[in-house]
Amino acid sequence: MNRNIRIAIYAVIAIVALYGTWSQNLAYGLTLQGFLPDAKANPAARSVTIDIFMMALSAAFLLIYEARRLGIRFVWAYIFFGLTVAISFTFPLFLIAREFALSREASAARGIAWYDYLGLAFVTAFIGWLYWYTLFA
User: Fold this and answer.
1) Which site among 1, 39, 62, 67 is 20 to 30 Å from 119 CA-CA?
2) What span, in angstroms and rounded, lies between the C-alpha atoms of 13 and 6?
3) Do 119 and 26 touch, CB atoms closer than 8 A?
4) d(Cα 22, Cα 15) in Å, to the nearest integer?
5) Are 45 and 39 in contact (CB under 8 A)?
6) pLDDT tens digits for 43-100?
7) Residue pair 127/38 in contact by the 8 Å Cβ criterion
8) Which pTM does this prediction carry?
9) Distance separating alpha carbons of residues 121 and 94, to the nearest angstrom
10) CA–CA distance from 110 to each of 44, 73, 113 (Å)?
11) 107-123 pLDDT, tens per residue?
């Protein structure tokens, strides 16, 4: 598939995901006070919530690896906004950045730094806590 078509598809997915998630978040209200308890209100809600958490964790590891391999900047912004805005929005944005990085020589590529490991440990612990909270709290 042509790179420009892939970029266009990723952009459409990101826009639709942003609208779909934030139209509901704004309708719900911007507080976590009721959101987290409602995210575990029944088995269906817990299943979807845990699915999203685990997808976000898997994506965080992939984003770090690919960003460092290809020299993509600001990878932690994608992870931060994936956890605070919506992973379904930021992951396609990262895929767009990845397409651009693949189209040029990745001369800025470097290995994973100590702070990447630290950040991934933090993200893993945070999602682990959310997982525990959703199932057991």
Assistant:
1) 39
2) 11
3) no
4) 11
5) yes
6) 999 999 999 999 999 999 999 999 999 999 999 999 999 999 999 999 999 999 999 9
7) no
8) 0.86
9) 21
10) 41, 11, 8
11) 566 788 999 999 999 99
CB atoms within 10 A of CB 92: 21
Determine contact, residues 53/127, Cβ cutoff 8 Å: yes
Q: How many residues does the chain have?
A: 137
Number of H helices, E strands in the chain: 6, 0
Residue 108 has a pLDDT of 63
- Six-digit token pair at 51? 């699915």
Tens of pLDDT, residues 2-35? 999 999 999 999 999 999 999 988 888 777 678 8
pLDDT score of 109: 66
| Residues contacting residue 87 through CB under 8 Å, at least 6 positions apart | 52, 55, 56, 59
DSSP 3-state assignment of 42? coil
Q: What is the pLDDT of residue 115?
A: 94
Among 112, 39, 29, 26, which residue's Cα sits nearest to residue 69? 112
- 4, 16, 105 from 51: Cα distances, Å: 30, 19, 35
Q: How far is CA 123 from the centre of its chain?
A: 11
Tokens representing residue 34 in the block: 């009721």
